[in-house]
Amino acid sequence: MSTPIHGRHYIAGQWRTPAGKTFASTNPARLRETIGIFPFGGRAEADEAVAAARQAFPAWRRLSRINRAELFDRLAQLVKRETDHLATLMARECGKVVTECRAEVVEGLHMIQYVFGVGRMPMGDVLSSEIPEKDAFMRRKPWGVAAVITPWNFPFAVPLWMLGPSLLEGNTVVFKPSEDTPAIGERLVELFLEAGFPPGVVNLVHGEAEAGEALVKNPGVNCVLFTGSYEVGRRIAEVSASIPDRIVASETGSKSAVIVCEDAKLDLAVTCGIVSAFKTSGQRCVSAGRILVHEKLIDAYAARLVALAKRLKIGDPLDASNFTGPVINQAALEKIQRYNALSKEEGGEILVQGGPGTAVPGLSGGCFLTPHVYRIKHGLNVRCIREEVFGPHLALIPFHDNEEAVRIYNDTEYGLSMAVITESYRTMRYFRDECEYGMGYVNLPCIGAEVHLPFGGVKKSGNGHPSAAGLIEAVTHKTAWTVNHAEEVKMAQGLTTAIEGGPT
After folding, report:
1. Burial of 477 by CB count in 10 Å (0-12 exposed, 13-18 middle, 19+ buried)?
2. Full set of structural domains in the chain with CATH
3. What is the pLDDT of residue 358?
């Protein structure tokens, strides 16, 4: 066991170690292992951090976009240096297998590299004017201060999806990482400082709901960038509604699905189903809680998927040979088990009974949970196929034709991610056009985001401001800039400039 980290806030260029209440970050694979002790932030820390970001904003936005981007090149080199350390720390803190954690560090690196490259790309448009002597431009300007509130399941990549575009475009930030993964969040801020980001540009406040609520309620915050539950996202929207010049960009849950069509290649479809449902123990916002399978294939598909699900290797996240590790904490484990029980109560045929991993050798003392798979018909009042479980909980649902598959897929309050497994271009196109989603995949799992693509959803999954590359539009606002090159004034729409009226 490593020596526990003594966590700190970082505000206005200073590390702060308050003497007040603290909380512990623990290893979900070994609950008796403490990763670190961190301070609870509240209104005082949030307000101070927002004030620091506000003070730093004018100087930061006046830097050229290229100068700001150059700092991300330095950050990229530091992340490359720290890849193994970051992956190990992440595996210990959030329970993802170290291979997944390493891939997440690489994804964060890709975001940094993308931001660095975009810094030298055009940002705006040259437009025509009705008046030949005029030049017209659309330019983007930063909003000001962004509050970045991020989840535990992607504690490195998701913050960079938000921090990167925000900072590149000239905003300053206050970052509140999840209380389940404060250590990896703090280490990320340390790397920003080592890369040379000025004091006040990046601020860090630890804590739980109180800290997040204080940030959202502060009128000095121009943008709230959030990934997490729908309930918290709705609260952010409610508070922000009274602040008219605020932008909220949120991604808030899902009930994603894989659709296996009649012409699907079975081995490919099973692989996509397993990866979609059980990577990260089903704790990705895009994880498939449902696999819709054509009725002619469902018996064969279920048999193959069940056989593979039973063989998945669950264990220590630091062991790269394991497919998956624990769920994040005891509360999550208990919630998932309640949904496992509900699936039987609602008429599901249990194919693999999920449960605590204590029955597996070496998994005692952690929040391990084996996969749960069941077969169930779609019904109007079936909660387990509509509500987000966020764990290794999978429903296999038969469908008769593509039209029914679309109806079943769309019959949730969410619309984040989907995949369709088919050999037909026309079938693929039908699902592309008729399903409600933010991200779609063909002959792939419904997980696997890339930073240059937008990441977000519709309905209860998002509010139209996707993160990663798509976030640049949310953290800037468009301005019009028109220049007259003539010695007299000419107006559009034929508007007269005569002082006394009449034609010019």
Report:
1. middle
2. 5-12+36-252+463-481 (3.40.605.10), 256-450 (3.40.309.10)
3. 63
